[in-house]
Amino acid sequence: MGREQKVVIITGASQGIGAGLVKAYRDRDYRVVANSRTIKPSLDPDVLAVAGDIAQPDTVQRVIEAALERFGRVDSLINNAGIFVAKPFTDYDEADYADVLGTNLAGFFDIAQRAITVMAKERSGHVVDITASLVDQPMSARPAALAALSKGGLNAVTRSLAIEYASRGIRVNAVAPGVIRTPLHAPYTHEALAKMNPLGRLGEVDDIADAVLYLESASFVTGVVLPVDGGRSVGI
Questions:
Q1: From the centroid of its chain, how far is CA 104?
Q2: Full-prediction pTM beyond 0.70?
Q3: Do residues 134 and 149 lie in contact, with contact meaning Cβ atoms separated by under 8 Å?
Q4: For 169-189, what is the mean pLDDT?
Q5: Cα–Cα distance for residue pair 153/48, rounded to 1 Å
Q6: Average pLDDT, integer, range 139-151
Q7: Domains in the chain and their CATH numbers?
Q8: N or C: which end of the chain has fewer CB within 10 A?
Q9: Are 179 and 193 in contact (CB under 8 A)?
Q10: Are 29 and 1 in contact, with CB atoms under 8 Å apart?
């Protein structure tokens, strides 16, 4: 297909949820610009891999420029890149703070700002932020204040941007995963983690991809933070 084929940028795209999102969007016949620090070139001519740290402004610039040069447009942005460091609040150091907020917030800010600038010219676009259900349901057994600080900020800015850009045809939503079966969680922890969810199982990457694709097609939905957490955000 030609330039009329839609284009999505996906950050944190080399494994786990990000890799699942690349596949899901390709199955929808989107062209994909996939970014992560370690991503490898793709054999699929409609997947453009751009390696680099999304916390660095030069990486963000390369991602946007590559999307426009190769595919000529940006229709959707999935802010999936994130760092999760779980430890007691007083054990965090300056490096933890810089790493987590650099990726989770500064990386989001730079690429969302540039992508929305492109979308606003066309008066059409969609942004999905991947946040975390622990923002609303913190766990005393697994403290993660920096995740709450950064992902909670994404929840708030999702709603703010949804209102700011609604009149310009741009929707902004978020998906807040619970515990998902990804390389982040060692296999020996899966059984215990599954018991923490009312549905009694871990989430799968496809559960998150399905939620993102629902929001992609839900043209009358904006400003939503959609929990995909096996019911844990409701209670346990």
A1: 9
A2: yes
A3: no
A4: 90
A5: 29
A6: 91
A7: 7-224 (3.40.50.720)
A8: N
A9: yes
A10: yes
Calculate the alpha carbon distances from 191 to 62, 181, 228 in Å. 41, 11, 19
Length of the chain: 236
**Residue in the block written with tokens 């660095």:** 56
pLDDT tens track for 59-96: 999 999 999 999 999 999 999 999 999 999 999 999 99
